[in-house]
């Protein structure tokens, strides 16, 4: 049993920590006790918190800076690997010597990480038994779809957890997954509908819920939009869009982005980036493309979002947000299916009338000759095309890591419009993704070898 006096001291420490003001929320520090000792770690923790630093008692995914004393990089990684269930994997976290912490305390702010502060981590190379430094940033590592550790990752992908299975099988999870899968429905709307008794698209048809045009289209074509799009279907849509673009503006260029550009075989939508080699020619292009597609009866739904270049160029470039300001069209395409054999006389098409209505089909017993497919068209000036292409190719994790690298390691701001060097107050032009990587001091990683 803890003596009364000591118990009071502990309680006061906790209350003090709750009242501390965190001045640097983006820097999350974990002090490794190994070889540091519990009392020194406690002292340094209080010191850091008193100066406005966020110092965690336990390691978690929120940690950005791991600080140790008298340890090698391999020893820190080994400790983390033994403490974390499933083992520690390289992620965007700095492994640092105590010198960074003490210097930051002296400066009363988190200092930029220098090479002298870093703990070197080496791993055995598969070829020749050499060594190489493992980058903690995903944008500095190749992670292709086809890799040497598939046996291990497929354990990860096919393994089961009782806790996870219990959540996945719950009524709320199933309903939220279904409702947020409707085009135009977010988490807040889905949660409100769930509390009102809605569980699936069919319920929306009978519950009297007021839907937006986007949501109406999402419910009407739910079945098709929930079906993965194949690479062949994406290619067919690309041919259609290319014909539309070249018809209204010869010389314009069309590039598929997203998962299909990274080599994925299926996806939930198809994204295209459109530009023209002559700056300014792209202005007014999108409405003409949409008009052509509509005249061919290829659009089931579309909504245009104008470009929002209202901010100053410097403000736009300094932003590290994943959201861009390009003109775009969110649409649902009518993609014709290959001709199939007609059904036998008297054969049922399957599904109820309600299910058919929810998916945009009909009840005539005849197979539908088309499929609804989500397509996004994005128009960018050629001077911003390389940045837009990089931003729209993904993956989301890779793009986030790339922006973190640019900001923390290179003092630059990267988004889908520009790369801005904050130290020199200049824009760094680039006509290709390779040039952007070169500016960032990174080896160029082709789209097919980025995080999928």
Structural write-up:
- With 452 residues, the chain is of the alpha/beta class.
- Helices cover 40% and strands 15% of the residues.
- It has helices at residues 4-19, 38-50, 73-83, 98-107, 150-158, 162-168, 171-180, 187-195, 201-207, 213-220, 222-225, 231-248, 258-261, 285-295, 313-318, 353-359, 385-393, 396-409, 433-440; strands spanning 28-31, 54-56, 65-68, 94-97, 122-124, 131-133, 229-230, 253-256, 266-267, 270-275, 299-305, 327-336, 370-379, 412-414, 419-421, 426-427.
- Strands 8-10-13-12-11 form a five-stranded mixed beta sheet, sandwiched between helices. It has a four-stranded parallel beta sheet with strand order 2-1-3-4. A three-stranded antiparallel beta sheet has the order 14-15-16.
- Strand 14 (412-414) and strand 15 (419-421) form a beta hairpin.
- Helix 7 (171-180) packs across helix 8 (187-195).
Please tally the β strands and state the result. Answer: 16
Kindly report the spatial arrangement of strands forming the biggest sheet: 8-10-13-12-11
Q: Look at the helices and sheets and give the structural class.
A: alpha/beta
The helix content, as a percent range, equals 40-55%
Strand content: 15-25%
Instruction: Tell me the distance between the termini.
Output: 53 Å
Largest sheet: 5 strands, mixed
Low-confidence stretches: 1-19, 124-132, 346-365
Mean pLDDT: 82
Rg, alpha carbons: 27 Å
Overall body shape: globular
Helix count from the secondary structure assignment? 19
């Amino acid at each position: 049993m803890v003596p009364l006096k000591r118990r009071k001291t502990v309680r006061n420490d906790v209350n003090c920590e709750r009242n501390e003001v965190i001045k640097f929320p983006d820097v999350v520090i974990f002090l490794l006790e190994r070889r540091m000792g519990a009392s020194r770690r406690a002292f340094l923790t209080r010191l850091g918190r008193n100066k406005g630093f966020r110092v965690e008692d336990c390691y978690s995914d929120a940690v950005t800076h791991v600080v140790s004393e008298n340890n090698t990089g391999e020893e820190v990684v080994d400790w983390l690997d033994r403490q974390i269930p499933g083992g520690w994997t390289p992620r965007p976290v700095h492994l640092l010597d105590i010198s960074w912490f003490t210097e930051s305390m002296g400066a009363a702010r988190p200092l930029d990480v220098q090479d002298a502060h870093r703990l070197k981590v080496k791993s055995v190379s598969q070829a020749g038994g050499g060594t190489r430094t493992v980058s903690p940033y995903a944008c500095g590592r190749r992670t292709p779809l086809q890799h040497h550790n598939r046996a291990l990752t497929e354990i990860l992908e096919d393994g089961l957890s009782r806790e996870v299975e219990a959540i996945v099988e719950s009524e709320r999870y199933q309903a939220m997954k279904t409702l947020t899968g409707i085009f135009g429905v977010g988490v807040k709307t889905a949660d409100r509908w769930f509390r009102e008794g809605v569980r699936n698209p069919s319920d929306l048809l009978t519950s009297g819920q007021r839907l937006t045009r986007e949501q109406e289209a999402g419910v009407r074509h739910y079945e098709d939009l929930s079906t993965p799009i194949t690479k062949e279907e994406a290619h067919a849509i690309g041919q259609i869009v290319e014909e539309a673009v070249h018809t209204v503006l010869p010389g314009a260029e069309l590039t598929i982005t997203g998962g299909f550009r990274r080599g994925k075989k299926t996806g939930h939508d198809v994204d295209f980036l459109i530009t023209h080699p002559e700056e300014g020619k792209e202005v007014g292009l999108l409405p003409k493309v949409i008009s052509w597609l509509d005249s061919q009866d290829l659009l089931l739904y579309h909504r245009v979002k104008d470009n929002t270049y209202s901010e100053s160029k410097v403000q736009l470039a300094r932003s590290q947000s994943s959201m861009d300001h390009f003109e775009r069209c969110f649409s649902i395409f009518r993609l014709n299916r290959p001709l199939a054999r007609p059904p036998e006389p008297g054969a049922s098409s399957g599904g109820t009338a309600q299910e058919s209505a929810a998916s945009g089909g009909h009840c005539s017993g005849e197979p539908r000759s088309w499929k609804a497919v989500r397509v996004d068209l994005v128009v960018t000036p050629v001077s911003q095309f390389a940045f837009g292409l990089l931003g729209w190719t993904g993956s989301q994790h890779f793009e986030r890591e790339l922006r973190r690298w640019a900001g923390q390691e290179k003092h630059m701001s990267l988004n889908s419009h520009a790369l801005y060097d904050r130290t020199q107050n200049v824009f760094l032009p680039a006509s290709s993704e390779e040039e952007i990587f070169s500016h960032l001091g990174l080896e160029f990683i082709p789209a097919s070898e980025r995080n999928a």
